Amino acid sequence: MILLDLFWTFFKIGLFTFGGGYAMLPLIQSEVMSHQWMSLDEIVNFIAVSESTPGPFAVNISSYIGRITAGIAGAVCATLGVVLPSFLVILLVARFYRAFRHSRTVEGAMCGLRPAVIGLIASALLSIAQQVFLQSAEKSLPAVLTSAAVFGLMTLLSFRKVHPVLIIVLSGVIGVAAGYMLGL
Q: In terms of domains, do 86 and 127 share one?
């Protein structure tokens, strides 16, 4: 039963998410927490791990959640669930693209979907940031300052077009160093 729940939950997430992995964060958070598969803190940690490992974010996060929830079979079911809707939709889009690429309806839908995707990503960002900084605040003021400094530095490096892999590695190194120095 849990395998079917994982497949169906991630199928719905994959089906109703436009804009990629980050746009699905609010839905993942809501669904995973409503099933009580993970706490918000665990989800935030899995987001960090999923973002730090190779591969598409949606595949990584669904695989991790499925694995923790129901082992290897859970990982397979959750991953298939999240990728199957995109696979089916892209087959349909590819089939009918030429006929509808200049349609006002399609262009209008895209004009409505783009800002919605940005809103979903912003919502996920704020939710995760709140969790990260609240978690730091529970530990100590130096932990909050370290989190804020890492966030600020990585944002600056991102705007300066530093390669994302370097940003992820540097964030990890700073986090480990701060953890040892501050006893986090």
A: yes
Q: How far, in Å, CA of 170 to CA of 6, rounded?
A: 34
121 in the same domain as 59:
yes
Return all residues near 114 (Cβ < 8 A) that are at least 6 apart. 19
Taking alpha carbons only, the member of 7, 43, 48, 49 closest to residue 28 is 43
What domain count does the chain have? 2
At 90-105, the pLDDT tens digits run 888 788 777 777 888 8
Q: Per residue in 35-48, pLDDT tens?
A: 999 888 888 888 87
- CB-CB contact of 47 with 39 (8 Å): no
Half-sphere exposure of 184 (CA within 13 A, CB side): 22
Residue 37 sits in which domain range?
2-136
Angle at 65 between CA 32 and CA 158, to 5 degrees: 95
- Reduce the DSSP state of residue 67 to 3 states and report it: helix
